[in-house]
Amino acid sequence: MLKAHTLLGLGVLVAAAAANRVLDECLRGNKKYTMNVVLLEDDTYEWSRPFVQAAVERAIEEDRRENDRHGIDFNLTANYNGFNTTMYNRQGCGSSTCEGVAILKMLHSNREIGCVMLGPSCTYATFQLVDDEIGLSLSIPVISAGSFGLSCNYKSKLTRILPPARKISDLLIHFVGEVLPFKPKWQNAYVYRKSVEDTTEDCFWYINALEAASANFARNVTRQMLRTEDSLRDVLTTTQRHSNIFILCGSPNDVVSVKSKLTSPIIEETLFILLDVYNPSYYVNVTSSQAMRDVLVITLPQRNYTKGPHWALNDTSVGWQINDYVAGYHDGALLFGKVLRERILSQRNPKRTLDVPLSDNPFGNASFYGMGGHYVLDKYGDRDVNFTIIYTSALTEKYEILAVFDTSLNKTRVVAVDPALHWKGGVLPDDRPENSEELNIQDVIMIVLSVSVIVASAIALIFYRQNRKERLMQKKWSHMDGQLFSPLDEKEVSLKIEEDRRKDSTYFSRRCRYDKKPVILKELKQTEGDFSEEQKIELNTLLGIDYYNLTKFYGTVKFEYNVFGVFELCQRGSLRYILNDKISYPDETFMDMEFKISVMYDIAKGMSYLHSSNIQVHGRLKSTNCVVDNRMVVKITDFGCHTILNPGRDLWTAPEHLRKNGVSQKGDVYSYAIIAHEIVMRRSPFYTQSCSNPAEKLYRVQFPTGMGFFRPDLNFEGTSEREIELCMLIRNCWDEDPERRPDFKKIELTLGKIFSNMHNQASETYMDNLIRRLQMYSRTLEHLVEERTSLYKAERDRADRLNFMLLPGPVVRSLKETGKVEPELFEEVTIYFSDIVGFTTLCHYSTPMEVVDMLNDIYKNFDSILDHHDVYKVETIGDAYMVASGLPNRNGDRHAVDIAHMALDMLSFVKTFELLHLPGIPLWIRIGVHSGPCAAGVVGHKMPRYCLFGDTVNTASRMESTGLPLRIHTSQSTINILQRTDCKFEYEKRGETYLKGKGKGMTYWLTGVAGNKYNLPTPPTAENFQRLQQDLAEMIVSSLEKRVDRDSSFKRTLSTKVHQRESSGSLQSDGLPEYFHLAVADPTSTFL
């Protein structure tokens, strides 16, 4: 006994030392703030910041004066951090789960963590801070004016200034069970819970403590919950009820509201126990009301802040209001200051005995005075209080104190010696109604017997009819309606791995949907669909199989080309596919030994059920017949139908069945061993290093040599004790003697034992293992999602780049956002047209591929020129090249300038360009430019194009068609715009030119820019240009003839043409044709 007391004393001293260490660290730490005040910012709750900050500041000032009185140079400081929940649907504490953690992290990053945290008052937020398993490992204590919930009980870092829910629960347990002069012992009660939206934070957690099935109140009191106001009103007006005692939390207004909606009077024996803990008005306005006559109120004792001028209820001078929550924050600061002061004094005078708590909670067992009265904290830091039980006197109709309950002793002290109670006899009513119309024991027995006879008769009738129906149906079979099958609409992202799986496997070839369930159609060897009687019985037997680890068979369906069996679809594919896919299902994070054992266990359970059913044997068991659903549950398929499906003869077939055809349960055990070897090794079926030929493996299994038997490689080296047990099980299952192989019941028990032994280790529980596996699987999924997301983003970016190459940026964005493009009118744009002179002749003497290559070379260079100007390429049609500027982005007068510069750059390029397949043949282009209004938009849905409409487009095209080679034909409107700019372009007046559909108009040749030397080709004269068409062919033939000299494979037909052309004498052998004698006279230039 002495030793036990010594150990207890040591424990108390260690706890006190830990608590003192927290205080010493605060005194030595030189913190920026000694208190971090955490609370709501909503301005609508009693513990919101506007009501609290002034109270905390007042407490700091009071503590400073007390320190000065003791000669202590230490002052409390505080910072204030709030969280706002007004943006949530459920405001206040209901949505403040992680805000306290977020504030603590912010304080840590700002290095502003103090010695203690005042608040939060919300249970959800506090629990995240102080729970040892879910919450943070706090180094500072928390003083909360709230945090009432049971989840915050017994936390060493938490001190609760206001009485928590466990104190209320203890009060009601003892008060209900006590026998007092004015009450009998109670055992039954109703507890009314209001909706979450209508209840306060304290009432929510107080009633929650009474409702929780595992809490003390539910274990000690037979209580029934009432969760709606309608159910409360129904019980109040009937004698057929569980109890006369109704416990609710709220205010007198809630009692008045319930009674005002009653349609019939309340039974006189009814007693309400109202938990109105934080309402001091019962001491201020003592006059009761008619509705409160049958109500006992449980509230806090009278507060200090309701007495005298020092604690004003409404201190308007500082703009704050006092309530129990505000007083709690104020008194929490006083408590912290008092404990620190006691610690400082004890360090100065070690021999002095002070009120330092002997608890692991630095504030446990403390007592002090504050706004809320006299505080006494228990060893866990929770406040003990003398709750006042108030009743309405039948004599005075005023509130009077009936009794006081001391939570530190859990005892009731009677105050009113002879209370004037409203109930019968002047005492509180019994918990059970007096006139309960209960059934006697004989009535109950008769009712039970009658119901039993009726139920037994109904079951017998149903059983008889079911058996009769089954006997008739066993010999009948009909195909399912093909119209009931629809395509399987899988709303999945078609990733590469999925497409590879569909490409490599026939398992996914006939998938569809039947009765909203995914199914797979498997071809049966019954082309006519007329089953024999034996086959019908077998199919009906298969139809009745329904087990978790067996695929469901739904029936057969006949289409024009064949008959198919309809089976449940497991969308992850076969087990063989899962084992092969080491990327999606890696060994180290997914397919570890525990998971492999669970896969083997699934197969063993399915086979155990199958062997005990009417089917009795599988006969075709292999890894491709084991399929996996989306929940990674392994199911067996292709069982039964022995008269329709022939037994297999493959690597999974037992040796006795290789020697003599047939099926047996022991043969299934052998097949299971081969599958288990695949699962454990993650190798190909029947893997051995000595042999890789399947035919040779079958031969050596069927005809063993010597004393040994040929089996897959299975080594015990480097394996653990559990893995050795598993390997021994596999070897027993593929034993040569079928009688020595275990059955599936034994296999199931052995695997269960191995799996259980893996979780008997002290280092990791089953739940720890499950959580670890889920975390590993989550990380694997995250990597896969990141990889697939990056692939998707790359493809999206490629598509966006392609769209921006085909359409203007604003148009693409409008199509992506709204799906359409509104047409737009542009007041002034400049349009450029060009085509290749003699393009028809060039095509005549070129192959189609040469024409494509030629245009590609030209347009690629044109496109690179466009990149240096603010222009938009509209389209190319054959040899025509169309460009516009001033749309879709307006650019003032720059559109004409950019088109002019671009046209000059293109002429400069043409001078140096050479056709690859026709060397020596120059490239001549005509250019036309015109400015004016234009409409633009996207027309149609198929292959949308950004098209231009208006007379300006037609005029620009006419300018090009009426121009001359190597000339930039410019309209008067374009020249006028260029004259408005600062660029000095050079041009020549061509004169009046007839434009089809427009009549005559003044046009110009654009020749350059003053001060900027363009390397432009010299255009031909008008007279030389007339001979272009007739001489171009001869030049091309001459170029081709020169190429023939270098290439002996020149076509004979082409040579014949060349000789015919030469005989005509039109081709000059001494040089270029005459039209290439260009005009070189310097024309008179006009500067813009």
From TrEMBL:
It comes from the Eukaryota. Residues 830-960 form the Guanylate cyclase domain. One of its GO terms (molecular function) is peptide receptor activity. SMART domains: CYCc. It is found in: Cell membrane; Endoplasmic reticulum membrane. Residues 1-19 form the signal peptide. Residues 448-755 form the Protein kinase domain. InterPro entries: A/G_cyclase, A/G_cyclase_CS, Cyclic_nucleotide_synthase, Kinase-like_dom_sf, Nucleotide_cyclase, Peripla_BP_I, Prot_kinase_dom, Ser-Thr/Tyr_kinase_cat_dom. Pfam families: Guanylate_cyc, PK_Tyr_Ser-Thr. GO terms for biological process: intracellular signal transduction; receptor guanylyl cyclase signaling pathway. Its EC number is 4.6.1.2. Its main location: membrane. It catalyses: GTP = 3',5'-cyclic GMP + diphosphate. Belongs to the adenylyl cyclase class-4/guanylyl cyclase family. PANTHER family: GUANYLYL CYCLASE, GUANYLYL CYCLASE C. This is Guanylate cyclase. It comes from Tetraodon nigroviridis.
